[in-house]
Amino acid sequence: MNGISNGMDIFFRVAFKPVATLLQSYDTIDKEGNKVRAQGKGRHDPCVVPRAVPIVEAMAALVLADFALQNRTIKLNP
Question: What is the mean pLDDT of each run of 10 residues along the chain (78 residues)?
């Protein structure tokens, strides 16, 4: 594929934002506007790396496939 790679490995850096759920309790309001105290619940995994690697690999493959298909359509319609 022209312009994407010359056959060498493609390297890139990936960053993730921190887990968004607050485990500390905090002041907020309910549907009626009353002051309430809330706290996050649910699964809180501080290490996202084991789940992130296959997601990043799959997304990189999708992006490269998208560019390959775009490159093909450009060649079909000069």
Answer: 64 77 81 88 69 87 88 73
Other C-beta atoms closer than 10 Å to the C-beta of 48 total 13
Distance in Å from the first CA to the final CA of the chain = 17
> Measuring CA to CA, how many Å separate 35 from each of 21, 27, 31, 41?
20, 7, 10, 19
Contact (Cβ atoms closer than 8 angstroms) between residue 30 and residue 40: no
d(CA 43, CA 22): 12
Total count of residues recorded for the chain: 78
Q: What is this structure's pTM?
A: 0.51
Burial label, 13 (beta-carbon count in 10 A; 0-12, 13-18, 19+): exposed
